[in-house]
Design goal:
single chain; alpha+beta; Beta-Lactamase; Beta-lactamase; Lipocalin; 3 domains; 9-stranded mixed barrel; 8-stranded antiparallel sheet; 10 helices; 25 strands; globular
Length: 519
């Protein structure tokens, strides 16, 4: 069957399942192992030999949902450089500073030795890499900041992972084509491939797409990125990217590289350790693509987005998740268990169980009831989050929490025993890799009363899934004698995951309407 996104879907074990030759029992085992390991997957797509053989989404994520891409974005940026290369607008031996002559006076000593190929391969000469979490706080020129960083290695000699290199690629392409890489790719790649029109991409203060992160797309778009490169730049009989570029981009440009430890704002150098943890070694790097086990190449992003291409198996795997970067369990399942089984056929059927997948399903009612006098406006004690008040109220569909801080009033309506979806500005930059979502983020939220603590504090727990991101917040409100304690944490982050507790005192109690029943 051909769907609007262009994929031919076929359940392994039915019809012409033997054409792709993958035992569906292996896919079921993979789903079971993900569940046993309690990995927070959002989507998992597996394509082999022209067929989408597995398409799984964990609710409230779904096929039409955009998902924030972190460093996966770098591989999209690489395509824009490839287009400009194919169009003869730039050369890999161009000096980076020549594209930014206005910053020559403030540039680091030795900047003239840095070439375009060096920023493509993360061998710029810098000693540390800049994370998007640092630059999102920077309102001045990102390009000038990059060019002013000290050059401590001979460019081309040492691999140092650096999202700022990818930003410079986006800035260079914009200067030579006269429009953003998003607009350039929309015309030349996204539209011809039929990628979603809703794809969006963050901009820097200079009006340049962020390059190394900040692209939002569907999981199917991510899979198609891998398919285009598996097919050497060809799509439906048309050569969208030259095979010369694609083979170089996905090839082994740098071998045996080190992914420096991420401190939240910087990637440490290859010889640096942090808290006794040494840098992770990887097989190699191409032009903004990783080389990996089993002769694979991949686009990979913080917190669990990835597109892995196995050329020898004619297969592509794409997934989104909320997983720590150092958590290798899912990748081990893919490379050690799934990869050898691709092409092995034993004729089993795949049970229809994909509709039951869900991220942290709301708890069933256990008989716990709300305490008296929990609703109302609470005045917060002084705190480092700038929160002045917290209010809670029962509404027809659930519980509404409103938090007022120096940025304004932030509200979420959470369902009791079900998720309610809406938009909120309640995001916290310290928990969300420096993202603020000032215009609001889509959220699916539930709330549930839990048994009181041993010392008599009633507990209302909230689960806030920011459904276009990897982030899922848990907030707990503890009530006792007119006092409130608010605790908040996140599933994944590049720095802290738990905020200091907020303490507040009830100022005005919400009166219950006649006949109203507490959740």
């Amino acid at each position: 069957m051909n769907a609007p996104d262009g994929f031919r879907r076929q359940r392994p074990g039915s019809g012409d399942g033997e054409a792709h030759g993958t035992d569906p029992a292996v896919l079921l085992d993979l789903l079971d192992e993900i569940a046993r390991e309690k990995l927070e997957l959002h989507s998992l797509l597996i394509w082999q030999h022209g067929t989408l053989i597995l398409e799984a989404y964990w609710q409230p994520y779904g096929p039409d949902r955009l998902h924030m891409m972190h460093s996966v974005t770098k591989s999209f940026t690489s395509m824009a450089v490839g287009l400009a290369f194919d169009d003869g607008l730039l050369s890999l031996d161009d000096r980076v500073i020549d594209y930014f002559p206005e910053f020559l006076a403030t540039a680091a000593q030795g900047i003239e030795t840095m070439r375009l190929r060096h920023v493509l391969t993360m061998t710029s000469g810098h000693g540390r890499g800049i994370s998007g979490g640092a630059w999102r706080k920077l309102s001045s020129s990102w390009a000038e900041d990059f060019l002013s960083q000290p050059i401590v290695h001979t460019p081309g000699d040492v691999f140092v992972y650096d999202s700022a290199c990818s930003y410079m690629l986006a800035a260079i392409v914009q200067r030579v084509v006269g429009r953003t890489v998003h607009d350039y790719l929309r015309e030349r790649i996204f539209n011809p491939m039929g990628l979603t029109q809703e794809i969006r991409w963050d901009l820097s203060p200079e009006g340049v797409n962020s390059g190394g992160n900040g692209l939002w797309c569907r999981s199917s778009d991510l899979l198609n990125l891998g398919l285009l490169h598996l097919q050497d730049g060809q799509w439906c009989g048309k050569q969208l990217l030259s095979s010369e570029w694609v083979r170089a981009a996905k090839g082994m440009q740098v071998r045996d590289v080190s992914l420096g430890f991420l401190t939240g704002e910087a990637y440490l150098g290859p010889e640096e350790s942090f808290g006794g943890v040494s840098a992770e070694r990887r097989e190699g790097y191409g032009f903004q693509w990783w080389r990996g086990p089993n002769e694979s190449f991949s686009a990979s992003g913080l917190f669990g987005q990835s597109c892995i291409v196995f050329e020898q198996k004619n297969a592509v795997i794409a997934f989104t998740a909320g997983i720590d970067d150092e958590d290798r369990r899912l990748l081990n399942m893919i490379h050690k268990d799934l990869y050898p089984a691709l092409g092995q056929w034993r004729g089993a059927e795949l049970p229809a169980r994909l509709d039951a997948l869900e991220v942290a399903p709301p708890p069933r009612a256990d008989g716990t009831v709300a305490p008296a006098s929990w609703q109302g406006l609470y005045h917060a004690e002084n705190n480092d989050q700038g929160i002045t008040s917290v209010s809670l109220a029962h509404e027809a569909q659930g519980v509404r929490i409103e938090i007022v801080d120096e940025r304004g009033c932030h509200s979420i309506l959470a369902g009791i025993g079900q998720r309610l979806e809406g938009t909120t500005t309640i995001a916290e930059p310290r928990l969300h890799h420096a993202y603020e979502f000032g215009e609001g983020a889509r959220v699916a939220a539930w709330a549930a009363w839990q048994p009181a603590t041993k010392d008599g504090w009633a507990c209302l727990v909230f689960d806030w899934v920011l459904v276009e991101t990897a982030f899922r917040d848990t907030a707990r409100c503890y009530f006792k004698d007119g006092c409130l304690r608010l605790q908040r944490e996140v599933n994944v982050n590049s720095s802290i995951r738990i905020l200091p507790e907020i303490r507040a005192t009830l100022q005005s109690e919400k009166a219950l309407a006649s006949g109203e029943t507490l959740p």
